[in-house]
Amino acid sequence: MTKAYPSNLTYAQYEFLSDMIPEAKPGGRKREVEMWEVLNAIFYVLVEGVRWRSLPGDFPAWQTVYTYFRNWRQDGTWLHIHDSLREWTRIEIERHHSPSEAIIDSQSVNFQLWMCRYAQMFCLEVLPHPGAAKLYGRLPIKDVPLFPSV
Predict the structure, then answer these.
(1) Separation CA 15–CA 69 (nearest Å)
(2) 126-137 burial, b for 16+ CB within 10 Å, e for fewer?
(3) pLDDT lower than 50: segments of the chain
(4) What does the pLDDT look like over 32-57, one tens digit per residue?
(5) How far is 57 from 69, CA to CA, in rounded Å?
(6) Could you tell me the pTM of the whole model?
(7) 48: CB partners within 8 A, 6+ apart
(8) Each residue of 37-58: b (16+ CB within 10 Å) or e?
(9) Residue 48: in which H helix or E strand, if any?
(10) Cα-based angle 119, 120, 124 (whole degrees, multiple of 5)
């Protein structure tokens, strides 16, 4: 990689994350790209908000970068990285490694209830697993007021 982007990882950051990146599968070809470059490309897309196909030429091919991103999302690598970074950060600032409380304001709850009612008007059904909304049936929400009040 020749150009430095603001989203690039430092070497110390990469060393910390490199232990969490899955090894190459046994019996396959050797990796032809550096994982540091792949991570920098993924963070470039996420920080800059560009399409995968719009990656600059000094990163690996967008298909390669996207495949790593998708595979790591499916096998839980990103979740593991997120959880490890959260725990490490909380311990560093001398807090318990796992948060024990969450604060939800009434405006957010009202918005969620309103969105559920809005989804019912368009006959959306949310299935039990994430990201699986289908365009048939109704949401299983009963007695939700159209404009709830707190």
Answers:
(1) 18
(2) beeeeeeeeeee
(3) 121-127, 129-148, 150
(4) 999 999 999 999 999 999 999 999 99
(5) 18
(6) 0.62
(7) 7
(8) bbbbbbbbbeeeeeeeeebeee
(9) helix 35-48
(10) 65
